[in-house]
Amino acid sequence: MDHQPPPFFKRGPAPLARLSFYAALSLALIFIDSRFQTLELLRQGVSLFTHPMQQAAHVPVEFLQGGGSYFSSITRLQDENARLKRAQLDGAETLLRSRQLEVENERLRKLLDLKGRQKANGRVAEILYAARDPFSRRVIVNKGQQDKIIAGQPVVDDAGVIGQVTRVFPFVSEITLITDKDQAVPVQIVRNGLRSVVFGLGDGQLELRFMPSNADVQNGDLLVTSGLDGIFLSGLPVAKVVHIERDTSYSFARIYCVPVAGVENFGEVMVLDPPDTTPLPAQLTTEAASGAAAKSGAKPGAKKKRLKRE
Amino acid sequence: MQPTYSSSRILQPVRPWFVPFSLLVALILNYLPTSAWPWMPDWVALVIIFWSIREPRRAGMGFGFLLGLAMDVADASLMGQHALAYVLASYAAFSLSRRVLWFPLGLQALHVLPLLLIVQLVQFGVRAMPGVDLPGLTYFIGPFVGALLWWPLTFMLLLPQYQPLDRDANRPI
To probe the interface with B, which of A37, A51, A58, A135 has the most B CB atoms within 10 Å? Predict the structure, then answer.
């Protein structure tokens, strides 16, 4: 038996012990965050510390951008002003008519005893930055719990849907773009009303999945939200079909789309209020509850529940 | 023991506040909105590795874990992803710390490069488990840039220790 001499310096626990402690803690965090999504409180707590530092880091960048725009020439601004005026005039006719059409539509819907279309309300938010995470497509906007943003709200810009709020922090919130991998938006084709779900591919494109090879989809078809999910209002433009592969060896066609909205742009976006959900009839509610209990492990169901709870 | 190629100066001990301060500066550098430039190195990883090699008893896995959490929250990535990567890199740097400093700076940078690659690979591994696409090879440029930054980093972070305590004109060194 040889005795080790007493250590000269106090060094705390052995490095390997510390490594296993921290690594186990990190792995536990990774596991909990990816499976149960119950760490939002911890996230919000840490964000109270990181948010001011992030803002401090963004100050010089904003200063540079502000300086750049200060020195932008008057002619460019005049050009832009003229262009915007022209665009407004171009759009005026359709806008005026759309107002009249909306009134008419509402009247007709009343006649038919249908539920009126909901008006879109929302809050304007500004995109602060894109999250540094190279594996996902998310942006951070400057409205959070303080402005009563809740997870699940749809986000649009002037051209169409750009994404959905997925996490809310006290002062900022995180938007998952529709091009994020496996982000799903229920859509319908404007031309013929065909319903489907469009999924993000993670590389800036979207894909219409599970459409049969003989589905009536053409290049250039515009996809708008169908509103069947109870989250997105119906009729918001989402994407345009750009490429269709009909291969007989697969049972589904591969349909690629590009987003209509400026998903990769920076600027101001509108966070829409979630639509009021129509309560299901009593019988359907009990059926849905028993169904959910029967397959509580099913992923889409769990996700939807989580969004509703938050 | 191999003789070093150049005798290194005898430095002052590091000031205790300087280690956390430099880590904080690195964290702010990481928070700069540079997602458009994939070649930006991970500053926090670089500075953590630096201090784990230079002062293994002052900075190490604890700081790595805390800063990793701060990065995870700010990055909107999976919780614990950066933390795990930094803890592993810090441990590897710690176990290398006895030998790395005998090498000249160029060879030190070559030792640091695999550590920085560990940081990226661990994060990629963690994210690949639930299934993501490869973010592209540009994702792995950052470590090489970081290894090149070892020279200026060593100079800058050791600068406070180069100053003499008392200004003595007849000092031998």
Answer: A135
